[in-house]
Amino acid sequence: MCISSSEVGPGFQLRVELYSSCTVEDFSPGALGPRRANRLGGSVGCSSGKKIRAAFESAAVCGSSGGNVEPGRVSPPLSPDLSTLGPKYNLLAHTTLRIEHVQEGFKTHDLSLAATEDNPFWLPLYGNMCCRLVAQPLCMIQPMISGQLKVKLGEDLNCWENVYGVLREQSLLCYQSQEDLESEDKLLLVIPIKKVGSKLAKSYE
After folding, report:
1. Are residues 166 and 181 in contact, defined by beta-carbon separation less than 8 angstroms?
2. Name one Pfam family in it (predicted).
3. Domain segments of the chain: what residues?
4. What residues form DSSP beta bridges with 191?
5. How far is residue 161's CA from residue 189's CA, in Å, rounded to a whole number?
6. Which residue in 67, 93, 131, 148 could disulfide with 111, CB within 3.0 to 4.6 Å?
7. How far is the first Cα of the chain from the last one, in angstroms, to the nearest whole number?
8. What is each CA distance from 113 to 13, 124, 127, 131, in whole angstroms?
């Protein structure tokens, strides 16, 4: 399973919740058992499952009234068993992932239990889950900032040149002018951005 979002701030929180559902074994005769109905509603889409269950309920009502409901008359109300068809989900456990959980590999995260073994919907849990949380900075897919700046192109410490810089991905791209952005051939300098600073630059002629 993969969950993705395109607009997430640095203070985001991803809450993961685990639910379970009870399955009732007994049901009134002559209609679709709730165990099968629950499976049916879970195996198809939510909207389709509701429509299918509604059709079974309607058929059961017609069968109980002999199928002779006169026009203008209201059908008999559904029995309590029919009106409660469908799974009821209960929260078992949850955890919250944040920016500090972003890393290259998979990691085990502890679950906070929201139910106990005494609950009828309880399922045996290991108490943790394993997943991988990844994040891509916005600067990796689009330019973040640009403008005029001075850079040293030669060995002479007093020799500085005005360039137009664009911060994109993990590099500061330097052009002679803003008009040169359309052509990669006119790139003058690439200054890599590193955690410990930047000392090396690649010159393009």
Report:
1. yes
2. Anillin
3. 14-131, 139-203
4. 172
5. 11
6. 93
7. 48
8. 18, 11, 8, 18
Looking at residue 79, its pLDDT comes to: 53
How many Å apart are CA 39 and CA 174, to the nearest integer?
Answer: 61
Does the predicted model carry a pTM greater than 0.90?
no
Low-confidence ranges of the chain (pLDDT < 70): 24-86, 184, 195-205
Residue whose entry in the numeric block shows the structure tokens 């001075």 = 150
Contact status, residue 53 vs residue 59, Cβ threshold 8 Å: no
pLDDT at 94: 92
Q: What is the pLDDT of residue 95?
A: 92
The residue type at 90: N
* Count of residues making up the chain: 205
List, for residues 58-74, the tens digit of each pLDDT value.
544 444 444 444 544 54
